[in-house]
C-alpha cells in the first residue's frame, strides 16, 4: 500500500523525548560562570596529575644554594623555591593532588553519611528524630582536636585516616541542614499523596525526599569542600595530617602565611591555586543547584 | 696545708665579690640620656605563665615574671652577673657552709620586714613534696639534704638552711658548690610571706593577695591576655627603679608578635619567627638583638635500639651533618655549631669537639660510609626520626634527613608528634632518633652533663659511661675550681666519644626591642632579665 | 511548643552526661599525661601532684569524684593554669567569645541575607557573579591568610587599628577579629540564602503573588523570605557554635583570651578538668542554640510541628 503521508511529516510530528538530565545539562551550560569554572578546574586537576611528571625537580629535592628565591626562569623555578630550596611549582602541584583527593573523598563520605542521617531523622520525626539529633548534638560538643589527637595516636598515621578524621567532624553539619529541609518537605502534598497510596517509607525517602533535597545538598556540599580542605591543612599543621616531605595546599599556605612579608610568592601561588579551586567549586555548585532544580523553567 | 690554700683563695674571691656587690646599682641610666615622661614597658612573654608562685614556676615566661615580683638572697643583673639581692653580704665559712647577712630595712610589699625565717619557710616550701613543685629536683641537689627532702625521704626540717638570727641565714651544701650564688638568684629560693599563703591558700598569687619582695607588685592578671605589674614603693632599691608599669603579654604566635610590635602595641618581640632573622636585620638593624644562650639543640639517639646501639652507626650519623650550612643557611639566625655537650659561655667546663670537625666534608662522608659498611648497614635502610610540631624543628629535621639521604643513602621516616606525645615516647625509649633541646637551669656544666649521665632521669639516650661518671663525682667534690673544670671537661669529652647523641647548635635568642627601651644587654647568657634594670628613653 | 521546649531542656541532662563520659574516656585514653614534662619529676612529687588532682584513684572513682563536684557547681582545678580554677577561666573567657562570636554572627546574617537576596534576584547576571565572588572571599581564602592580610592592611600600612590584644571596653580591639569572623560566616550565609531564595521564587504561591501585581519588594520580603530562610537558619546553628567556641585561629592571630584558645591549650596539655569543663559549656551552648534553631523552623514553616 503506498503511503499517503510522506515520512518526513510523520516523523517530524513526533517531538524528540528530552530526558530530565539533558534538561539539567542545558540549564547548567546556561550558567557561564559554572562552565568556565568546570574548565578551569579540569585544567587544575590535569596539571596536578601530569605536571610533576614533566618537571625536572621532585617535590622533596632540597637545594641549599637556592633557598627562598623568588620566581625566576633560570633553573626553571617558575614559582620560586621555599626556605629549604625545594621547587614551589612541583610542590604546589603535588600538594594539589593531596588536597583534591582528600577534598573529594572526605566530602563524599561526609555527604553520604550526613544526607542519610539527616533525611532519615527528618522524615521519621518524633522519637527517632529526637534521638538521632541528640546524638549529633553530643558529637558536636566534643572538641575536634581531642578526637583528632586520639584517632591519630591510637590508630596510627595513614592517608585514609586523615580522610576519615575530617569526615568525622564535617558530616554533622550536613545532617542538621538536611534534617531541617526534610522536615519541611515531609509536610508537602506529594509526600502525603505517596503515603496515602501506600508507598513504603524507605521508597518515599529515597525517591521523593532525597531528590528534592538535592538543591540544598549540592550547595552545602560546595560549602563543605573548602571546609574539608582547610581542615586538612589545620590537621597537618598540628602534626596530624600528611607527613613531611609530602605536602598539601593547606600546609603550603600555612607555611607561606608565616613568611608573607618577606617571601610573598610562597603564599601567592598555592593560595591562588586553592582559592581558584574553591571559587570554581562554588560556582559549579551554584550551577548544579540551578540545573537540578526541578522547578526552574 | 695544701688544702687550706684553695679555700683561702676561694674565700678571698667571695669577699671581693661581696664588696663589689654593694656598689652595683639597679637601672644604671647612662649620663645624658633623657627619660620619657611615661615609664611603661609593654613586652611580649612567649606564653601564658602556668603560675606566679615562685616555688611552682617552671617555665621561662613564669620565671621571668617571678623575677620582678620576688627577690632572693642574690639576683642577676642585666649583663647576667650575679649581684646582691636581699642579702647585703655573705661569707663562705667553710667549703660547704655559707652565712648570708640580710640588709636592713628589707620588707615585703605589705610593709612587713623580711627575716631569715621567711627564707627558711620559702625554701622548705619549695622543696616540700607536699607543695608538689615539678622544678624541685632540678635545684634540690645543691642544698644539703635537698634531694632527700624533695623525694620525701627526710622531713623538711632537715634541709640545710637555718636562721641564725633575724638577719643571718646559714646555708649548707652537700659538696662545695662554686656557683651557689648564681643558683640562689633563682626565685625558687625567694622568701615567702607565710601568713599570706596560709590565709589565701591557692589564691595567694592573685592580684590583691600576692605579697612579694621584688621591685614590682602584681596589679592585674588576665589569663591569656596580660599580666600587669606596678612599681613597688617598698622595695629596698625603689629609688633606682625607673619603670612604673610593666605589662607582659602572652603572645604565642611569633608572627602575631611581630605584627603587634610593628603596629606599636608592644615594645618587644619575645622571639623572632624562624627564618625571619635575615629580613629583620635588614628592616630593623638597630632593633634586632641576638645573643648566644646557654642552650643546646641536639638529637637524642636511642642507645638501646637494635640499629642505634652500634657506635659506628651513631658516629656516622653525627659526622655527615654539615653544621656550618645548618647554622649559616638553614637556620640563619646566628647560632653556633656545636660538636660537643658543653657550649660556649658556660662555667665549669670547656667546650669539647671532635677531631673530625675540622676535616673537609668529603673526608667525613667517606669515613662515615666506611663506618656504616663495617656495621653492616646498607644504603636504603630506613631510620625513623621523631620531632614535635614546630616550623623550626621541621626545617632542621628536613635538613638532617636530606644529609643522611644524599650522603649515606639512608631513608628517614619523619614522625611529627604532638609535644606531650614526643616527650613520653622519648622518656619511654620508643624512638630511634628524636629531636631534643636543653636550656641551662644554672650556669654550670653539670646542668648539661645530666643529659648523658648514667641513671639520670634526664638521660633519654640511656647511655652510660662509668669512667666519666666517676670523673664527674670527683669533680663535684673538688674545691679547686681549675681542677674541677679539668675533670668535668674530660668527663664530657669521654662521654661524647661514645656518641650517645648528636649535638647540633647552640641556641640564640633573636628578638626585637624598640630603640627607646634602654638597659638591655645582648650577652646575658641565661636570658634572666629584671624589669628594674630597664628604662624608657624620651622618644 | 512550651512542652517541646521543656522536653528538650530536660533531655540535655542525659546528653551532657553522655558527652562528659565520652570525653573523659577519650582524654584518659590519649597518650601523654599532664605531668609528662621535659624534666622528669621525682616519684614523691608525682605522687603529691596526682593526689592533688585525685589522679591516683582508679578511673571510675575519679569519674564519680568529678560528677560529685559538678553537682556542687565546681568544675575543678586546672593543671595548665595552676593558679586558677576552671570556673574562673571559663567565666572570664566566655564573655569575650560571646562578644566576638555573637556580634560577628549578627553582622554575617545581616550582610549575608542581603547579599543572598540581591544575588538571587539577579540570577546568572554579571552582578550575581560579582556579588558571589566578593561574598565568598571568606570561604575560599583560609582564615590564617585572611587574618594576617587584614592586619597588614588595617594595622600596619594604615595604622588605624591595633593588630591584636584585647580590652573589654575599647571597641577598636574588637573590629578586626569581628571582621575576620564575619567574612568567614558571611560566605556560607550568602550562598545558602541565594540558593534557597531562587528555589522559593519559583514556587506556585510566589507566582500567584506576582500575578496579583504585588510589587517585588513585598513579594520577596513578605512572602518568599520566610520559607527561604529555613536552610539559612539550619546553617546558623553550626556557624554560631563554632564562632563562639572554636574560633581558635582568630584568637591566636589577634591574641584574644577566648574559649577556643583554652580548649586547644587544654587538649595539648592534657588538662583534663579544663577540657571537660569547656566541653560541658560547649554542649550547653550547642544544645541551646540548636533548640533555638528548631523553634525557628516551627516559626518559619507553619507546617512543621513537633
Describe this structure in words.
The complex is a heterotrimer of chains A (297), B (539) and C (306). Chain A has 297 residues and is an all-alpha fold. Chain A has helices at 7-13, 20-30, 32-54, 88-124, 126-141, 144-155, 159-186, 189-196, 201-237, 249-258, 265-292. Chain A is flat, with a radius of gyration of 25 Å. The two termini of chain A are 45 Å apart. The relative contact order of chain A is 0.14. The mean pLDDT of chain A is 78. Chain B is α+β, with helices and mostly antiparallel strands and 539 residues long. Helix content of chain B is 32%, strand content 19%. Chain B has 17 helices and 21 strands. In chain B, the strands form six sheets. In chain B, strands 14-18-13-17-15-16 form a six-stranded mixed beta sheet. Chain B has a four-stranded mixed beta sheet with strand order 1-10-9-8, with helices on one face. Chain B starts with a helix and ends with a strand. Chain C is mainly α and 306 residues long. In chain C, 75% of the residues lie in helices and 0% in strands. Chain C has helices at residues 2-29, 43-52, 59-71, 86-121, 126-135, 137-140, 143-157, 172-201, 204-211, 216-245, 248-253, 259-268, 272-300. In chain C, helix 1 packs antiparallel against helix 13 (272-300), helix 4 (86-121) packs antiparallel against helix 5 (126-135) and helix 8 (172-201) packs across helix 10.
In short:
The complex is a heterotrimer of chains A (297), B (539) and C (306). By secondary structure, chain B is α+β, with helices and mostly antiparallel strands. Chain B has 17 helices and 21 strands.
Which descriptors apply to this entry?
heterotrimer, B: 539 residues, alpha+beta, 6-stranded mixed beta sheet, globular, C: 75% helix
Mean pLDDT of chain C: 84
Note the gap between the termini of chain B.
61 Å
| Mean pLDDT value of chain B | 89
Helix content of chain C: over 70%
Number of strands of chain C: 0
Helix content of chain B: 25-40%
Compute the CA-based radius of gyration of chain B: 24 Å
What order do the helices and strands come in, and which of them pair?
The complex is a heterotrimer of chains A (297), B (539) and C (306).
Chain A: H1 7-13, H2 20-30, H3 32-54, H4 88-124, H5 126-141, H6 144-155, H7 159-186, H8 189-196, H9 201-237, H10 249-258, H11 265-292
Helix pairs in contact in A: 2-11, 3-4, 3-11, 4-5, 4-7, 4-9, 4-10, 4-11, 5-7, 6-7, 7-9, 8-9, 9-10, 9-11, 10-11
Chain B: H1 4-23, E1 40-44, H2 60-69, E2 74-76, E3 82-84, E4 87-94, E5 97-102, H3 116-127, H4 136-139, H5 146-150, E6 161-165, E7 168-172, H6 180-183, H7 194-200, E8 216-222, E9 226-231, E10 245-249, H8 254-262, E11 268-269, H9 277-283, E12 288-289, E13 292-301, H10 311-319, H11 323-331, E14 336-337, H12 361-375, E15 382-388, H13 391-408, E16 411-417, H14 419-428, E17 433-439, H15 446-449, H16 466-477, H17 481-497, E18 501-508, E19 511-513, E20 517-518, E21 535-536
Parallel strand pairs in B: 1-10, 15-16, 15-17
Antiparallel strand pairs in B: 2-3, 4-5, 5-7, 6-7, 8-9, 9-10, 11-19, 12-19, 13-17, 13-18, 14-18, 20-21
Helix pairs in contact in B: 10-12, 16-17
Chain C: H1 2-29, H2 43-52, H3 59-71, H4 86-121, H5 126-135, H6 137-140, H7 143-157, H8 172-201, H9 204-211, H10 216-245, H11 248-253, H12 259-268, H13 272-300
Helix pairs in contact in C: 1-13, 4-5, 4-8, 4-10, 4-13, 7-8, 8-10, 9-10, 10-13, 12-13
